[in-house]
Protein: Ribosome biogenesis GTPase A
Organism: Marinobacter segnicrescens
Amino acid sequence: MAINWFPGHMHKARKEIKQVMPQMDLIIEVLDARIPFSSENPMVPALRGDTPVIKVLNKRDLADPEVTALWQQWLEKKKGIRAVTLTHNQRNEALGILRLAQEMVPDSIRDTRALRIMILGIPNVGKSTLINTLAGRPVAKTGNEPAVTRAQQAIKLPDNILLYDTPGFLWPKLTPEECGYRLAVTGAIRAAVIEFEDVALFAADYLLQAYPDRVCERYGLDEIPADGLALMDAIAAKRRFFARGGIPDLHKVSEVLLNELRAGTLGAVSLETPELVEAEQAREALR
Ligand code: GDP
């Protein structure tokens, strides 16, 4: 099933970014460390052109540290892109990103005018949180809902840096379809776009494959279920989630599984690895 979700305001966001891009010295692209590939905006490479970029793998606290290290290596060594990891409330680390930005822009620019940095990223990856951390005060709206919108604004930072916020809506990566599912699992795109229970089933299948022991421990299962659906049935049985007629209440199971996964109750979980997305890309290329 292809997932189609390209609202009109995303076209507007794209146009706005295209307009201001030539004035930017550097882009900070904020990604979700749990899904560094799926949370990349597919329009960014084309919009960015030759403008230098730092990719920030944010929400590091929620992601599997070993997998995050693989991603950082993959981006830096394989793709030649500067990549750092970050988590909220780490002001010094966040300011380190600005220092790195200064190093990446030629002195000839920095000596003559303010350094212009634009923050890009799909909704809910933590852009506003990062901007507020860098500014040391609340200048950008934050929220759990992906749909927080804001006007374009330049924020003055010390060391002659101007930070440009971008519209909250950007095009998420919905192909291959796994990317769409992963974005839905993290809550970056609304459950309504993809059937809620399908999202939970995708998560259940992945958890079983990547973190089988943790899942069994959390839900008190003695045996590793054969597949995602069997896992959901097992959770229903353990928690006594039954609908009318005694059938497993998969909606309730979906709610619990996704909420616990998002809240970190299942531990720090990454939803994709470089190896996995490379295999998916190879498969897509054959289509
Ligand atoms: P934006 O839409 O990209 O501007 O994202 P926000 O800054 O509004 O953040 C979206 C949600 O993620 C908010 O509830 C933030 O509190 C939360 N958030 C941001 N950064 C982090 C982080 O490093 N770790 C965790 N666990 N949550 C974060």
Notes: The pocket of guanosine-5'-diphosphate is lined by residues 58-59, 61-62, 87-88, 121, 123-129, 142-144, 148, 168 (CB under 6 Å).
